[in-house]
Amino acid sequence: PKNSSKEKTVWMVPVNMRTKLQAHQFSGNFVTTLSVHINPTDTVGSIYKQISSLMKSGIIWGGWIIANTPKFIGEKRLRKISKNMKSPYFGLCSNLGSWPPEHAKNESSQHHQWIPVSPVTRFCPVSTVILKWNDSYSLSCQLHPSISNNLKDTEQLVDKWGREILKEFNLTHNNQIYTVAWDRVESNAQYF
């Protein structure tokens, strides 16, 4: 959704590196991130252009090296470094693309909808995930308690986010919003 504050925010956008690396040469993390700076007036199109430009610049390789540094410095040093670390990120937005792949479609996949959720931390207090499963889209959002403990705030954010996406692409659709507390996600999964 559009940023309601007047400030520029920085969002973490994950990038899958598996297609760029030879899996037999590396073990561990195959994800890096881009730091995307978003102004309150940015559109989906302008954000997409920024992401494309960053991808073409090759900056993802530096991010991948940094993301894999912890395995070289060890857990003790990593914990010491992270104690004093301040994050530039306001949140994470991950678009997981279209699922299931053609070769994995079966009877079961036609009757289910996946709704992925990524965790939040004090370093990255807003987490959003987009997934297309068959012909349905799911948008998930989680806010760290440092932002809000009220599920209604999350629900309102997802509603506004969905409406902004529909507006950007000149689409109309009824949004179905389901709100579940994090500790009850698994037990409520059948309702989605």
Strand content: 15-25%
Structural class: alpha/beta
Cα-to-Cα separation, first versus last residue: 23 Å
Could you tell me the mean pLDDT? 78
Quickly count the helices.
5
Please estimate the helix content: 25-40%
Low-confidence stretches: none
Task: Return Rg in Å.
Answer: 18 Å
Shape: globular
Looking across the biggest beta sheet, what order are the strands in?
A: 2-1-3-4-5
H/E topology pattern: EEHHHEEEHH
Report the major sheet: 5 strands, mixed
Query: How many E strands?
Result: 5
Furnish the topology, listing elements before pairings.
Layout: E1 9-16, E2 31-38, H1 44-57, H2 59-68, H3 70-83, E3 91-99, E4 126-133, E5 136-143, H4 151-168, H5 185-188
Parallel strand pairs: 1-3, 3-4
Antiparallel strand pairs: 1-2, 4-5
Description:
With 192 residues, the chain is an alpha/beta fold. The protein has 5 helices and 5 strands. It has helices at residues 44-57, 59-68, 70-83, 151-168, 185-188, and strands at residues 9-16, 31-38, 91-99, 126-133, 136-143. The protein has a 5-stranded mixed sheet with strand order 2-1-3-4-5.
Give a brief description.
By secondary structure, this protein is α/β, with parallel strands linked by helices. 31% of the residues lie in helices and 21% in strands.
